[in-house]
Amino acid sequence: MAGPRHDLTQGPIAGTLFRFALPILGGNVLQSLNGSVNAVWVGRFLGEQALTATANANNVMFLLLGAVFGIGMAASILVAQAIGRGDLKQARSVIGTSATFFIGLSIVIAAIGLPLSRHLLALMDTPPAALPFAEAYLRIIFLALPFLYAFTFITAILRGSGDTRTPFLFLLLTVALDIGFNPVLLFGLGPFPRMGIAGAATATLIANAVSLGALLLWLRHKKHRLWISRHERGLYRPNLAVLKSLIVKGIPIGLQMMLISVAMLAMITMVNKHGVDTAAAYGASLQLWTYVQMPAMAIGAACSSMAGQNVGAGRWDRVHSTAKSGVLFNFLMTGALIIPLILFDRHTLSLFLPDGSPALAIAIHLNPIVVASFLFFGVTFVLSGVVRATGAVIPPLIILAIALWGVRVPFASLLQPRMGADAIWWSFPASAIVAMLGSVAYYVFGGWRKSRMLRPGPNEVAVPTEVPGQAPSPIADVARCDEPATGARGP
Protein backbone atom coordinates (compact mmCIF):
# COMPACT_ATOMS: atom_id res chain seq x y z
CA MET A 1 0.00 0.00 0.00
CA ALA A 2 1.06 3.55 -0.55
CA GLY A 3 1.78 5.90 2.25
CA PRO A 4 4.57 7.92 3.81
CA ARG A 5 7.58 6.02 5.09
CA HIS A 6 9.35 7.26 8.18
CA ASP A 7 12.63 5.49 8.95
CA LEU A 8 13.84 6.18 12.48
CA THR A 9 16.80 3.82 12.14
CA GLN A 10 18.86 6.29 10.07
CA GLY A 11 20.08 9.86 10.44
CA PRO A 12 21.42 11.89 13.38
CA ILE A 13 19.92 10.81 16.69
CA ALA A 14 19.14 14.09 18.42
CA GLY A 15 17.83 15.86 15.33
CA THR A 16 15.67 12.93 14.26
CA LEU A 17 14.25 12.51 17.78
CA PHE A 18 13.52 16.21 18.13
CA ARG A 19 11.73 16.48 14.77
CA PHE A 20 9.79 13.29 15.49
CA ALA A 21 8.77 14.51 18.96
CA LEU A 22 7.65 17.99 17.89
CA PRO A 23 4.25 16.90 16.47
CA ILE A 24 3.68 14.80 19.60
CA LEU A 25 4.47 17.82 21.74
CA GLY A 26 2.21 19.93 19.54
CA GLY A 27 -0.56 17.38 20.05
CA ASN A 28 -0.04 17.48 23.81
CA VAL A 29 -0.20 21.28 23.70
CA LEU A 30 -3.45 21.13 21.74
CA GLN A 31 -5.01 18.64 24.15
CA SER A 32 -3.95 20.65 27.16
CA LEU A 33 -5.10 23.88 25.56
CA ASN A 34 -8.43 22.22 24.90
CA GLY A 35 -8.71 21.11 28.52
CA SER A 36 -7.65 24.53 29.78
CA VAL A 37 -10.14 26.40 27.59
CA ASN A 38 -12.90 24.09 28.75
CA ALA A 39 -11.78 24.59 32.36
CA VAL A 40 -11.96 28.37 31.88
CA TRP A 41 -15.55 28.12 30.62
CA VAL A 42 -16.56 25.72 33.41
CA GLY A 43 -14.64 27.30 36.28
CA ARG A 44 -15.37 30.97 35.60
CA PHE A 45 -18.98 30.65 34.45
CA LEU A 46 -20.28 27.61 36.35
CA GLY A 47 -18.18 27.99 39.51
CA GLU A 48 -15.82 26.02 41.75
CA GLN A 49 -18.24 23.10 42.18
CA ALA A 50 -18.35 22.49 38.43
CA LEU A 51 -14.56 22.71 38.11
CA THR A 52 -14.15 20.26 40.98
CA ALA A 53 -16.65 17.97 39.24
CA THR A 54 -14.64 17.82 36.01
CA ALA A 55 -11.42 17.08 37.92
CA ASN A 56 -13.08 14.15 39.74
CA ALA A 57 -14.81 12.80 36.63
CA ASN A 58 -11.66 12.90 34.49
CA ASN A 59 -9.71 10.96 37.09
CA VAL A 60 -12.33 8.19 36.96
CA MET A 61 -12.13 8.09 33.18
CA PHE A 62 -8.34 7.70 33.11
CA LEU A 63 -8.47 5.00 35.78
CA LEU A 64 -10.98 2.80 33.94
CA LEU A 65 -9.19 3.08 30.59
CA GLY A 66 -5.68 2.43 31.91
CA ALA A 67 -5.61 -1.22 30.85
CA VAL A 68 -6.95 -0.40 27.38
CA PHE A 69 -4.26 2.26 27.00
CA GLY A 70 -1.65 -0.39 27.75
CA ILE A 71 -2.90 -2.55 24.89
CA GLY A 72 -2.57 0.42 22.55
CA MET A 73 0.98 1.10 23.72
CA ALA A 74 1.96 -2.55 23.33
CA ALA A 75 0.53 -2.56 19.81
CA SER A 76 2.46 0.60 18.98
CA ILE A 77 5.74 -0.97 20.13
CA LEU A 78 5.05 -4.17 18.17
CA VAL A 79 4.34 -2.12 15.05
CA ALA A 80 7.52 -0.08 15.57
CA GLN A 81 9.65 -3.23 15.88
CA ALA A 82 8.04 -4.78 12.80
CA ILE A 83 8.60 -1.60 10.78
CA GLY A 84 12.22 -1.53 11.94
CA ARG A 85 12.66 -5.08 10.61
CA GLY A 86 10.86 -4.19 7.38
CA ASP A 87 8.12 -6.73 8.20
CA LEU A 88 4.95 -4.96 7.01
CA LYS A 89 2.93 -8.21 7.10
CA GLN A 90 3.46 -8.61 10.84
CA ALA A 91 2.75 -4.92 11.45
CA ARG A 92 -0.67 -5.26 9.79
CA SER A 93 -1.39 -8.46 11.70
CA VAL A 94 -0.70 -6.62 14.95
CA ILE A 95 -3.00 -3.78 13.90
CA GLY A 96 -5.91 -6.08 13.05
CA THR A 97 -5.70 -8.12 16.25
CA SER A 98 -5.15 -5.16 18.55
CA ALA A 99 -7.95 -3.11 16.94
CA THR A 100 -10.47 -5.89 17.62
CA PHE A 101 -9.33 -6.35 21.20
CA PHE A 102 -8.74 -2.70 22.04
CA ILE A 103 -11.96 -1.22 20.68
CA GLY A 104 -14.08 -4.12 21.93
CA LEU A 105 -12.71 -3.73 25.44
CA SER A 106 -13.28 0.03 25.44
CA ILE A 107 -16.96 -0.54 24.54
CA VAL A 108 -17.34 -3.03 27.39
CA ILE A 109 -15.78 -0.62 29.89
CA ALA A 110 -18.02 2.21 28.70
CA ALA A 111 -21.13 0.01 29.02
CA ILE A 112 -20.19 -1.00 32.57
CA GLY A 113 -19.12 2.45 33.69
CA LEU A 114 -22.17 4.39 32.46
CA PRO A 115 -24.66 3.11 35.06
CA LEU A 116 -22.03 3.17 37.81
CA SER A 117 -20.99 6.80 37.35
CA ARG A 118 -22.54 8.15 40.56
CA HIS A 119 -21.24 5.24 42.65
CA LEU A 120 -17.68 5.71 41.38
CA LEU A 121 -17.77 9.41 42.17
CA ALA A 122 -19.20 8.75 45.62
CA LEU A 123 -16.36 6.33 46.38
CA MET A 124 -13.94 9.23 45.75
CA ASP A 125 -15.66 11.39 48.37
CA THR A 126 -16.60 13.89 45.69
CA PRO A 127 -17.96 16.95 47.56
CA PRO A 128 -21.78 16.79 47.69
CA ALA A 129 -22.07 20.20 46.05
CA ALA A 130 -20.06 18.97 43.06
CA LEU A 131 -21.57 15.47 42.76
CA PRO A 132 -24.54 16.30 40.46
CA PHE A 133 -22.24 18.19 38.09
CA ALA A 134 -19.70 15.37 38.08
CA GLU A 135 -22.30 12.70 37.37
CA ALA A 136 -23.82 14.61 34.45
CA TYR A 137 -20.35 15.14 32.99
CA LEU A 138 -19.04 11.59 33.53
CA ARG A 139 -22.06 9.80 32.04
CA ILE A 140 -21.57 11.51 28.68
CA ILE A 141 -17.82 11.00 28.82
CA PHE A 142 -18.48 7.25 29.11
CA LEU A 143 -20.52 7.46 25.90
CA ALA A 144 -17.59 9.20 24.21
CA LEU A 145 -14.95 6.70 25.34
CA PRO A 146 -15.12 4.26 22.40
CA PHE A 147 -14.62 7.14 19.95
CA LEU A 148 -11.97 8.84 22.04
CA TYR A 149 -9.86 5.75 22.56
CA ALA A 150 -10.30 4.36 19.05
CA PHE A 151 -8.88 7.68 17.83
CA THR A 152 -6.05 7.42 20.39
CA PHE A 153 -5.32 3.84 19.31
CA ILE A 154 -5.00 4.71 15.62
CA THR A 155 -2.72 7.66 16.34
CA ALA A 156 -0.53 5.42 18.52
CA ILE A 157 -0.22 2.93 15.65
CA LEU A 158 0.74 5.69 13.24
CA ARG A 159 3.34 6.92 15.72
CA GLY A 160 4.78 3.44 16.00
CA SER A 161 5.16 3.37 12.22
CA GLY A 162 7.13 6.62 12.42
CA ASP A 163 4.38 9.09 11.47
CA THR A 164 3.58 11.81 14.01
CA ARG A 165 2.47 14.49 11.54
CA THR A 166 -0.83 12.85 10.54
CA PRO A 167 -2.00 12.32 14.16
CA PHE A 168 -1.18 15.96 14.91
CA LEU A 169 -3.28 17.27 12.02
CA PHE A 170 -6.35 15.26 12.98
CA LEU A 171 -5.88 16.11 16.65
CA LEU A 172 -5.94 19.74 15.56
CA LEU A 173 -9.36 19.06 14.03
CA THR A 174 -10.52 17.40 17.27
CA VAL A 175 -9.46 20.33 19.41
CA ALA A 176 -10.99 22.90 17.05
CA LEU A 177 -14.34 21.09 17.15
CA ASP A 178 -14.23 20.63 20.92
CA ILE A 179 -13.37 24.26 21.63
CA GLY A 180 -15.97 25.44 19.12
CA PHE A 181 -18.84 23.30 20.42
CA ASN A 182 -18.05 23.82 24.12
CA PRO A 183 -19.60 27.27 24.67
CA VAL A 184 -22.35 26.54 22.15
CA LEU A 185 -23.60 23.53 24.13
CA LEU A 186 -22.67 24.95 27.52
CA PHE A 187 -24.86 28.04 27.13
CA GLY A 188 -27.29 26.90 24.42
CA LEU A 189 -26.27 29.31 21.66
CA GLY A 190 -28.38 29.46 18.50
CA PRO A 191 -30.55 26.40 17.90
CA PHE A 192 -28.61 24.25 20.38
CA PRO A 193 -30.03 23.45 23.84
CA ARG A 194 -28.48 24.80 27.05
CA MET A 195 -26.78 21.73 28.57
CA GLY A 196 -24.57 23.22 31.28
CA ILE A 197 -21.63 21.06 32.28
CA ALA A 198 -23.04 18.17 30.23
CA GLY A 199 -22.44 20.35 27.18
CA ALA A 200 -18.68 20.28 27.79
CA ALA A 201 -18.71 16.48 27.73
CA THR A 202 -20.99 16.40 24.68
CA ALA A 203 -18.57 18.65 22.80
CA THR A 204 -15.83 16.10 23.53
CA LEU A 205 -18.03 13.28 22.20
CA ILE A 206 -18.85 15.12 18.96
CA ALA A 207 -15.26 16.21 18.34
CA ASN A 208 -13.77 12.74 18.76
CA ALA A 209 -16.47 10.97 16.74
CA VAL A 210 -16.11 13.35 13.79
CA SER A 211 -12.29 13.30 13.86
CA LEU A 212 -12.18 9.51 14.09
CA GLY A 213 -14.39 9.20 11.02
CA ALA A 214 -12.31 11.75 9.13
CA LEU A 215 -9.05 9.97 10.00
CA LEU A 216 -10.39 6.60 8.82
CA LEU A 217 -11.60 8.11 5.56
CA TRP A 218 -8.21 9.77 5.01
CA LEU A 219 -6.29 6.53 5.59
CA ARG A 220 -8.57 4.72 3.16
CA HIS A 221 -8.36 7.47 0.54
CA LYS A 222 -4.55 7.58 0.70
CA LYS A 223 -4.34 3.77 0.60
CA HIS A 224 -2.00 3.98 3.55
CA ARG A 225 0.37 1.05 3.82
CA LEU A 226 -1.13 0.13 7.21
CA TRP A 227 -4.77 0.40 6.09
CA ILE A 228 -6.66 -2.89 6.21
CA SER A 229 -9.09 -2.99 3.27
CA ARG A 230 -12.41 -4.83 3.15
CA HIS A 231 -10.72 -7.66 1.23
CA GLU A 232 -8.36 -8.18 4.18
CA ARG A 233 -10.92 -8.29 6.98
CA GLY A 234 -9.51 -11.63 8.03
CA LEU A 235 -6.70 -9.68 9.70
CA TYR A 236 -9.24 -8.57 12.32
CA ARG A 237 -9.51 -12.17 13.50
CA PRO A 238 -7.27 -12.33 16.56
CA ASN A 239 -3.81 -13.81 16.01
CA LEU A 240 -3.23 -15.79 19.20
CA ALA A 241 0.51 -15.11 19.37
CA VAL A 242 0.00 -11.38 18.87
CA LEU A 243 -2.96 -11.37 21.27
CA LYS A 244 -0.87 -13.09 23.94
CA SER A 245 1.88 -10.50 23.55
CA LEU A 246 -0.64 -7.65 23.68
CA ILE A 247 -2.09 -8.98 26.92
CA VAL A 248 1.18 -10.04 28.60
CA LYS A 249 2.96 -6.80 27.69
CA GLY A 250 0.00 -4.46 27.51
CA ILE A 251 -1.47 -5.19 30.93
CA PRO A 252 1.67 -4.11 32.84
CA ILE A 253 1.81 -0.92 30.75
CA GLY A 254 -1.86 -0.35 31.45
CA LEU A 255 -1.30 -1.04 35.12
CA GLN A 256 1.27 1.75 35.16
CA MET A 257 -1.39 4.14 33.93
CA MET A 258 -3.86 2.72 36.44
CA LEU A 259 -1.33 3.12 39.25
CA ILE A 260 -0.96 6.78 38.30
CA SER A 261 -4.73 7.21 38.06
CA VAL A 262 -5.45 5.42 41.33
CA ALA A 263 -2.74 7.45 43.03
CA MET A 264 -4.32 10.62 41.66
CA LEU A 265 -7.68 9.39 42.92
CA ALA A 266 -6.15 8.83 46.34
CA MET A 267 -4.66 12.32 46.25
CA ILE A 268 -7.85 14.03 45.12
CA THR A 269 -9.80 12.09 47.76
CA MET A 270 -7.45 13.49 50.40
CA VAL A 271 -7.71 16.94 48.83
CA ASN A 272 -11.53 16.77 48.80
CA LYS A 273 -11.55 16.31 52.57
CA HIS A 274 -10.00 19.77 52.94
CA GLY A 275 -13.05 21.39 51.32
CA VAL A 276 -14.19 22.83 48.01
CA ASP A 277 -11.66 25.69 48.02
CA THR A 278 -8.67 23.35 48.34
CA ALA A 279 -10.18 20.98 45.76
CA ALA A 280 -10.74 23.83 43.33
CA ALA A 281 -7.17 25.06 43.89
CA TYR A 282 -5.86 21.59 43.16
CA GLY A 283 -8.01 21.30 40.03
CA ALA A 284 -6.76 24.65 38.73
CA SER A 285 -3.14 23.72 39.47
CA LEU A 286 -3.59 20.47 37.57
CA GLN A 287 -4.15 22.55 34.46
CA LEU A 288 -0.67 24.06 34.80
CA TRP A 289 0.97 20.75 35.69
CA THR A 290 -0.44 19.23 32.52
CA TYR A 291 1.61 21.71 30.50
CA VAL A 292 4.75 21.01 32.52
CA GLN A 293 4.47 17.27 31.82
CA MET A 294 3.98 17.73 28.08
CA PRO A 295 7.64 17.87 26.93
CA ALA A 296 8.64 14.79 28.93
CA MET A 297 5.60 12.84 27.78
CA ALA A 298 6.21 13.81 24.16
CA ILE A 299 9.91 12.93 24.34
CA GLY A 300 9.11 9.67 26.16
CA ALA A 301 6.57 8.63 23.51
CA ALA A 302 8.99 9.56 20.73
CA CYS A 303 11.81 7.64 22.42
CA SER A 304 9.59 4.55 22.68
CA SER A 305 8.77 4.54 18.95
CA MET A 306 12.30 5.41 17.89
CA ALA A 307 13.87 2.84 20.20
CA GLY A 308 11.30 0.24 19.03
CA GLN A 309 12.24 0.64 15.39
CA ASN A 310 15.95 0.47 16.22
CA VAL A 311 15.45 -2.60 18.41
CA GLY A 312 13.70 -4.23 15.46
CA ALA A 313 16.63 -3.27 13.22
CA GLY A 314 19.22 -4.41 15.77
CA ARG A 315 20.66 -0.88 16.09
CA TRP A 316 21.50 -0.85 19.80
CA ASP A 317 23.91 2.04 19.44
CA ARG A 318 20.99 4.19 18.36
CA VAL A 319 18.79 2.88 21.18
CA HIS A 320 21.22 4.16 23.81
CA SER A 321 21.78 7.45 21.99
CA THR A 322 18.00 7.88 21.90
CA ALA A 323 17.86 7.54 25.70
CA LYS A 324 20.63 10.10 26.20
CA SER A 325 19.02 12.58 23.83
CA GLY A 326 15.65 12.12 25.50
CA VAL A 327 17.00 12.85 28.98
CA LEU A 328 18.78 15.96 27.74
CA PHE A 329 15.68 17.29 25.97
CA ASN A 330 13.63 16.63 29.12
CA PHE A 331 15.91 18.75 31.26
CA LEU A 332 16.01 21.59 28.74
CA MET A 333 12.34 21.69 27.76
CA THR A 334 10.71 20.85 31.09
CA GLY A 335 13.04 23.19 32.95
CA ALA A 336 12.19 25.99 30.54
CA LEU A 337 8.51 25.65 31.50
CA ILE A 338 8.92 25.31 35.26
CA ILE A 339 10.54 28.70 35.84
CA PRO A 340 7.86 30.93 34.25
CA LEU A 341 5.03 28.85 35.72
CA ILE A 342 6.44 29.55 39.17
CA LEU A 343 7.13 33.24 38.53
CA PHE A 344 3.76 33.98 36.91
CA ASP A 345 1.52 31.43 38.63
CA ARG A 346 -0.87 34.08 39.98
CA HIS A 347 -1.71 35.26 36.48
CA THR A 348 -2.10 31.76 35.03
CA LEU A 349 -4.04 30.32 37.94
CA SER A 350 -6.45 33.27 37.91
CA LEU A 351 -7.59 32.10 34.48
CA PHE A 352 -9.30 29.11 36.11
CA LEU A 353 -10.52 30.65 39.35
CA PRO A 354 -12.77 33.70 39.94
CA ASP A 355 -11.13 36.90 41.17
CA GLY A 356 -11.03 37.04 44.96
CA SER A 357 -11.62 33.32 45.36
CA PRO A 358 -9.92 31.85 48.47
CA ALA A 359 -8.96 28.91 46.26
CA LEU A 360 -6.57 31.19 44.34
CA ALA A 361 -4.34 31.80 47.38
CA ILE A 362 -4.22 28.06 48.10
CA ALA A 363 -3.26 27.30 44.49
CA ILE A 364 -0.45 29.89 44.56
CA HIS A 365 0.93 28.23 47.70
CA LEU A 366 0.90 24.62 46.46
CA ASN A 367 1.99 25.16 42.86
CA PRO A 368 5.74 25.84 43.39
CA ILE A 369 6.02 22.87 45.77
CA VAL A 370 4.68 20.40 43.22
CA VAL A 371 5.67 21.76 39.83
CA ALA A 372 9.45 21.17 40.06
CA SER A 373 8.88 17.45 40.70
CA PHE A 374 7.94 16.93 37.06
CA LEU A 375 11.54 17.55 36.04
CA PHE A 376 12.48 14.33 37.87
CA PHE A 377 9.45 12.41 36.66
CA GLY A 378 10.45 13.42 33.12
CA VAL A 379 13.57 11.26 33.39
CA THR A 380 11.34 8.35 34.41
CA PHE A 381 9.05 8.93 31.40
CA VAL A 382 11.98 8.90 28.98
CA LEU A 383 13.82 5.87 30.33
CA SER A 384 10.61 3.87 30.78
CA GLY A 385 9.75 4.58 27.15
CA VAL A 386 13.11 3.25 26.00
CA VAL A 387 13.17 0.05 28.06
CA ARG A 388 9.53 -0.74 27.21
CA ALA A 389 10.49 -0.70 23.53
CA THR A 390 12.26 -4.03 24.05
CA GLY A 391 9.38 -5.62 25.97
CA ALA A 392 10.67 -4.93 29.50
CA VAL A 393 7.41 -3.81 31.10
CA ILE A 394 7.46 -5.28 34.62
CA PRO A 395 10.42 -3.38 36.18
CA PRO A 396 9.05 0.07 35.22
CA LEU A 397 5.74 -0.99 36.76
CA ILE A 398 7.49 -2.00 40.01
CA ILE A 399 9.49 1.24 40.13
CA LEU A 400 6.34 3.29 39.64
CA ALA A 401 4.44 1.27 42.26
CA ILE A 402 7.17 1.90 44.81
CA ALA A 403 7.31 5.62 44.02
CA LEU A 404 3.55 6.18 44.14
CA TRP A 405 2.31 3.65 46.67
CA GLY A 406 5.46 3.18 48.73
CA VAL A 407 6.27 6.89 48.91
CA ARG A 408 3.67 9.38 47.62
CA VAL A 409 0.42 8.07 49.09
CA PRO A 410 1.88 7.02 52.50
CA PHE A 411 3.81 10.29 52.75
CA ALA A 412 0.68 12.35 52.09
CA SER A 413 -1.54 10.23 54.31
CA LEU A 414 0.71 9.72 57.33
CA LEU A 415 2.08 13.27 57.55
CA GLN A 416 -1.21 15.13 57.19
CA PRO A 417 -1.87 15.19 60.94
CA ARG A 418 1.43 17.09 61.35
CA MET A 419 1.70 19.07 58.10
CA GLY A 420 -1.91 19.45 57.01
CA ALA A 421 -2.51 19.73 53.27
CA ASP A 422 1.20 20.48 52.75
CA ALA A 423 1.87 16.77 53.22
CA ILE A 424 -0.05 16.15 50.00
CA TRP A 425 1.93 18.74 48.07
CA TRP A 426 5.39 17.61 49.32
CA SER A 427 4.61 13.98 48.52
CA PHE A 428 4.97 14.82 44.80
CA PRO A 429 8.69 15.74 44.77
CA ALA A 430 9.51 12.92 47.22
CA SER A 431 7.99 10.26 44.97
CA ALA A 432 9.40 11.82 41.78
CA ILE A 433 12.97 11.60 43.04
CA VAL A 434 12.52 7.95 44.06
CA ALA A 435 11.07 7.10 40.63
CA MET A 436 13.95 8.79 38.82
CA LEU A 437 16.65 7.04 40.85
CA GLY A 438 14.98 3.65 40.33
CA SER A 439 14.61 4.20 36.57
CA VAL A 440 18.24 5.24 36.13
CA ALA A 441 19.43 2.24 38.14
CA TYR A 442 17.38 -0.19 36.05
CA TYR A 443 18.48 1.37 32.77
CA VAL A 444 22.16 1.09 33.71
CA PHE A 445 22.16 -2.27 35.50
CA GLY A 446 18.92 -4.05 34.50
CA GLY A 447 18.35 -6.82 31.98
CA TRP A 448 15.95 -4.93 29.72
CA ARG A 449 18.15 -5.47 26.65
CA LYS A 450 17.32 -9.19 26.63
CA SER A 451 13.53 -8.73 26.72
CA ARG A 452 11.29 -9.40 23.71
CA MET A 453 7.80 -8.26 22.77
CA LEU A 454 6.99 -11.19 20.48
CA ARG A 455 8.81 -14.48 20.04
CA PRO A 456 9.79 -15.21 16.41
CA GLY A 457 7.98 -17.88 14.44
CA PRO A 458 9.72 -21.01 13.16
CA ASN A 459 10.75 -19.35 9.89
CA GLU A 460 11.71 -15.99 11.38
CA VAL A 461 15.09 -14.73 12.52
CA ALA A 462 15.33 -13.44 16.05
CA VAL A 463 16.41 -9.85 16.47
CA PRO A 464 19.95 -9.83 17.87
CA THR A 465 20.31 -8.66 21.43
CA GLU A 466 22.95 -6.22 22.50
CA VAL A 467 26.55 -7.22 22.94
CA PRO A 468 27.00 -8.01 26.67
CA GLY A 469 28.01 -5.07 28.79
CA GLN A 470 26.31 -2.34 30.72
CA ALA A 471 24.81 0.71 29.08
CA PRO A 472 26.25 4.09 29.97
CA SER A 473 24.18 6.27 32.26
CA PRO A 474 21.97 8.53 30.14
CA ILE A 475 22.30 11.31 32.70
CA ALA A 476 26.06 11.15 33.08
CA ASP A 477 26.60 10.98 29.33
CA VAL A 478 24.09 13.42 27.87
CA ALA A 479 26.84 15.66 26.57
CA ARG A 480 27.55 13.08 23.84
CA CYS A 481 23.95 12.70 22.69
CA ASP A 482 24.46 14.59 19.41
CA GLU A 483 27.20 12.24 18.28
CA PRO A 484 25.97 10.42 15.15
CA ALA A 485 25.48 6.70 15.56
CA THR A 486 27.62 4.38 13.48
CA GLY A 487 27.51 0.73 12.56
CA ALA A 488 25.75 -1.41 10.03
CA ARG A 489 21.99 -1.77 10.14
CA GLY A 490 20.80 -5.11 11.50
CA PRO A 491 18.71 -7.58 9.54
UniProtKB/TrEMBL annotation:
UniProt keyword list: Cell membrane, Membrane, Transmembrane, Transmembrane helix, Transport
Transmembrane region(s): 60-83, 95-116, 136-156, 168-189, 195-219, 240-268, 288-307, 327-344, 364-386, 393-411, 423-445
Subcellular location: Cell inner membrane
GO molecular function annotation: antiporter activity; xenobiotic transmembrane transporter activity
Record's bilayer topology term: Multi-pass membrane protein
GO cellular component entries: plasma membrane
Main location: membrane
Record region (Disordered): 468-491
Top-level lineage group: Bacteria
Keyword Cell membrane: yes
Protein name: MATE family efflux transporter
